[in-house]
Amino acid sequence: MSAPLAHLALHLPDEHATDALAGQLAPLVNGAHGPAGGRIHLRGDLGAGKTAFTRALLRASGIKGRIKSPTYALLESYKVSNLYFYHFDFYRLSDTREWLDAGFRDLLRDDAVVLIEWPERAGAFLPVPDLEIALLHTEQGRDASLTAYTARGQTWLNAIVPPIAAHSRHVPPPADA
Ligand SMILES: Nc1ncnc2c1ncn2[C@@H]1O[C@H](COP(=O)(O)OP(=O)(O)O)[C@@H](O)[C@H]1O
Ligand SMILES: [Mg+2]
Phi, psi (5° rounding) for residue 115? Predict the structure, then answer.
């Protein structure tokens, strides 16, 4: 993978914080700071919050109705106005060529919003994402590690305003720190 351009580490104390992070990214992928579209890779163990984050982003983008996890189908697609959203989950890929054979590569366009869970299972043919979000279980909540690999991803990172929580308090460091 090409070299990361920028990085941001956040703590997400509860699922509302995950929703809030998705709520901050939604306008960005919908074109608030440039053309709409972009690719986000979501890494993390089962239950880390990849689907929860994606659902919240799709909801905040105006997608109504049921948002299914693509665990079995590999792909769920949506369209709002003229913008396409592709939600992949590669957990069940049996080999790294399966998604290529399914024609999924044609969907990884810069003018579509592409969210990919378990990108590591797709192997080396997957293009570099604009943003990778790695979610890690902590004692309470999750740590989120956001890495931008493109100028677009870097623009998004710069627009994110921590702390990510509806009711979290920012505790300033001690004066003598
Ligand atoms: N920041 C968070 N802190 C605690 N729980 C969270 C947080 N974000 C999401 N969750 C919860 O963790 C679970 C994540 O499940 P899911 O999104 O299906 O995981 P994955 O797709 O990564 O396997 C959900 O029950 C969700 O409510
Ligand atoms: Mg999932």
Answer: -120, 125
CA angle 154, 159, 163 (to 5 degrees): 115
User: Which atom in ligand 1 lies closest to the alpha carbon of residue 141?
Assistant: 3
d(CA 87, CA 70): 7
Please report the DSSP string for 48-94 in residue order: SSHHHHHHHHHHHTT--S----TTTTSEEEEEETTEEEEEEE-TT-S
pLDDT in tens, 130-155: 999 999 999 999 999 999 999 999 99
Question: Distance from the CA of 43 to the center of ligand 2, in angstroms?
Answer: 10
* Greatest Cα pair distance in the chain: 59
Ligand approaching nearest to the C-alpha of 45: 1
Q: Which CATH superfamily is domain 6-159 in?
A: P-loop containing nucleotide triphosphate hydrolases (3.40.50.300)
Other C-beta atoms closer than 10 Å to the C-beta of 25 total: 27
Sign of CA dihedral 42, 46, 49, 52: positive
Q: Is the pTM of this model over 0.90?
A: yes
